[in-house]
Amino acid sequence: MKFTYYGQSCFLIEADGKKFLFDPFITHNPLAKDIDITKIEADYILVSHGHGDHVADLVEIAKQTGAEVIAMVEVAKWIKEQGVDKVTDINFGTQDLGFGKLRTVWAVHSSSNPDGSYGGNPAGFVLNLSGKQIYFAGDTALTVEMKLLAELHNLDYAILPIGGHYTMDVDDAVIASNYIDCDKIIGVHYNTFPPISIDMDDAIAKFQRENKTLLLPKIGETIIL
Question: Which terms are listed as keywords in the entry (predicted)?
Fold first, then answer.
């Protein structure tokens, strides 16, 4: 299984012969200026919520790739209005989709679409891919709801926001990793803007003190999970 980071909360997972793109925000991110979105391939695009730093490149990439877009009902409606044909709307719970079972879970944040319309509830996802269980928290604060994931899943990796200000910071993400009982964390949603800047070495050390691994791949870097 491959994980490629594109900055902010955008990444691509390649597993089971499919490519899963999450929260596409690239061309408006100066840190991702070397990423050519015309070369990105995707079979599925999963959207955690409607904020611009998660959907700015969604429509262009969806039309370019012909990927199936998966999003909460209200965000899915907005996406369809942009002329994207392959859209699956979801809500909290489990869904049987073309690649298998998806669990859509609670996230503590807000959501609106780029045109200001109502974006419904933000969400996170748990996917079963290549025999591994992966949790993407989306944009969220720390919440005790996360403890339920430890009862429902044996998570191999968790992709957590760590930048603070709008989401969990590093300290809260460490607590979250204990709540979900996951030792391998990939950090996202940090360093893109001044309010979410972090000390990366300090962040890695805080997870190490809990006997956990924090992975912080560079933008454009691919790692093997």
Answer: Hydrolase
